[in-house]
Amino acid sequence: MNTIQKRTLRVLVERLRLQESLSTWCGHSHGSLRRAVRIPVGMVGNHAAASDNNHHDHNRRSTARLTHSWTNRTSHRIPPRSSPNYLNLSHSCSVKRNVNNRHYSESDNNGEKNISTLFIPVPVKVTFNPDDINIGEELGASLKDKKAELLKVLNSFYRRKEIQRLAAENGLDELLFHQAFVSFRKYIVEVECLEPDLHIVLSDILAGAGHVDDIFPYFLRHARQVFPALDCMDDLRKISDLTDPAQWYPDARAIKRKIVFHAGPTNSGKTYHALESFCSAKSGVYCGPLKLLANEVHMKTNDKGIMCDLVTGEERRYTHPEGIPASHVACTVEMTNVNQPYEVAIIDEIQMLRDPARGWAWTRAFLGVAAQEIHLCGEAAAISLVQQLAAATGDEMEVRHYKRLTSLKILDQPLESLENVRPGDCIVAFNKNDLYSISRQLEAMGKECAVIYGSLPPGTKLSQAKKFNDPDDPCKIMVATDAIGMGLNLSIKRVIFNSLIRPIINEKGEKEMDRLSTSQALQIAGRAGRFGTQFEEGEVTTFLSSDLPTLKEILACSVESIEAAGLHPTAEQIELFAYHLPDATLSNLIDIFVNLSKVDNNYFVCNVDDFKFLADMIQHIPLHLRARYVFCCAPINKKHPFICTMFLKFARQYSRNEPMTYDWFCRQIGWPLSVPKNIRDLMHLEAVHDVMDLYLWMSYRFMDMFPDMVIVRTIQRELDDIIQEGVINITKLIRATESRSANGVTSLPDDDIERKKGMGKSADSKRKTKAKSREKSQARSYGSSDEEADGSQLDQRKLSSVSGRLSKELIKQGLLSEEVLDQLHREWKSSGMGKAKGSKGGGSGRKKKKK
């Protein structure tokens, strides 16, 4: 076939496609369109004649275009609103979109986020003509020299209220309509070879034989290319429908389950009774909130002669030497196997299903575990919600109430001074700076103390707990964060709250300071007094006298009933979303899913900010969706730069299909590592331990890419011993840190991997600034009087800059009065804070600055 034949055939094909397109949009029959758009009979049979008679057929084609344009305009132009055809046209063009529009209206009325803000425009791919033939120009006039006129026509189209109204009925709100129009206008002006049907319509309008309304079908077609979600909103809503999550677990729904709720406070024996049923069953699973608790159940069950495996995110410990799964398993709640049948299941701390970050794991375990008998242990506040969930699943439920086995007394006297501590005391602080300062002052008094906080490795926590519990050990005092609230068995006589203000994560995922809740206070205070120990009668008080009435008020309140359980989008649901929106990022898919999701009053969608943070971090790395999803589920501390850097390296190595061997891993973390010399060294070792946890977590999901889990676990135990040695000598580390701060030394330690790997001057500068701030804030002094105690408390929080926004905010919230503020000014001046400015280090610093 020669060039003329190809060209003529392409013109014919495009004309036929144009007929079909017009038939779709205008409702004409195929025959009527053939009458409107005339095709010369001899075109196919005689290519040469068609070429020679091109000029003679011009008038005939012009007549055909005018006929087609008039027919199209009169049939598809938007009639006036008063016309009875107006509603019919709107309905015929957007039956499917009306449903979506109702959904948007409902979302807006409910105050939900407008979903259209989450839709990211997709660049429209221009299809190139391989024969370089502009079919539009063959069928109509050229538009190359008419750009200005085209822009006027398009702007007129954009301003028409009828067009905006019809666009809204097709799912394009004001924002989407504007974005789609900008893309459509750019496409028309910049693309040299438009689609023939669009080219002809624009030619007709410029020639006065068309109307701007004729553009709408082509604009809508373009808008659906720019926003592919418009074509699948119903499907997306169906996928994100979370109103009946119980049906996600057919194995659990196929059996009749009995729910036994053990409700009671801390130290009431509720978990003990549940574990008796667990051990007496032929098979069972224990689902705990922490690795420490799962490990404790694993060890105790095996000590009784019952084979029990341990399964956590970072470890699989099989009792059978050949790795054959045992009949019993203790696991963290996220690792619950919902496909394995059990006789008995225990879900500990069931009230955690309200947790905004991890609540989905408890909901999944409760709804999905296929056990004949399920024992729930936790606060009575969860009973009402669990009863509603059990009614929805058709499960039988029994509630057993428990009381504390030992008494818990709220003292009328605060501690007021560290000189008043006695054996069995546990001082609870909600930040590490307080914890370090208290430990330092106790050591100066000659009193040895154990230290526990959240970022310590599990082995170090157990070592410190054992040291504190040992009656023959001289360590009789503990300083801890709220990490003691669960997971550790401690022989505590008296719990002392250093403060009642703690950092929390609000519903928006933002960190803010708030008063301790009743549930949290009871969880921590309940650690005082343990049945079967030398301290069976527990006591609780505060460090400051001003906090004691508040503590009594908090503990006197009843815990609010839990209203909803958490849910989280699954990998399968996100994959279905990605099928419909292939160009969207994972973070964007999650955003759209959460905003489109529909839940009933018993559920809520958990906070996904951490997931999105990791998704954005590795978005530039080429990964398959399932692998990307798994990476984003990794439990890491996103606040630590070194951990985030290693996370990125893992993802990049995986994308290159390069296994992360032991040698490669040791080079990245700088192994072997030495004993910490100061607090910053200790914090870095804790971060390296977390990175090892991340490697082990990945090794169970990508075994071929993380092949050396055994040897990495071995060096992790060695690192745990190094950290334990550092914590035992923590007061020496604090003194070293204070000495570095006093001497103005802010450089990173020699073995700091972040500096070695060159993470950038800006990042180092930020870390140094934070280190200075942190080290300076460790000089808190505890006096014997109320005034001194109040002053030291506020001094630690850096309220010396009282003229700033913080002091105004504290006064506004009623946490501080102007009288107390003036008193603090006087105390700071009298305590010699101004002398520091004249110190040697400070003077040299000023001299250098002047130079």
TrEMBL record:
It comes from the Eukaryota. PROSITE patterns: HELICASE_CTER. Residues 47-66, 741-803, 827-851 are annotated as: Disordered. InterPro entries: DEXQc_SUV3 (IPR055206), Helicase_C-like (IPR001650), P-loop_NTPase (IPR027417), RNA-DNA_Helicase (IPR050699), SUV3_C (IPR022192), Suv3_C_1 (IPR041082), Suv3_DEXQc (IPR044774), Suv3_N (IPR041453). Its main location: mitochondrion. GO terms for cellular component: mitochondrial degradosome. Its EC number is 3.6.4.13. The gene is LOC110982471. It is found in: Mitochondrion. CDD domains: DEXQc_Suv3, SF2_C_suv3. It catalyses: ATP + H2O = ADP + phosphate + H(+). GO terms for biological process: mitochondrial RNA 3'-end processing. This is RNA helicase. It is an enzyme of class 3 (hydrolase). Residues 410-575 form the Helicase C-terminal domain. Keywords: ATP-binding, Helicase, Hydrolase, Mitochondrion, Nucleotide-binding, Transit peptide. Its cofactor is Mg(2+); Mn(2+). SUPFAM superfamilies: P-loop containing nucleoside triphosphate hydrolases. The keyword Mitochondrion applies. It comes from Acanthaster planci (Crown-of-thorns starfish). The keyword Transit peptide applies. GO terms for molecular function: ATP binding; hydrolase activity; RNA helicase activity. Belongs to the helicase family.
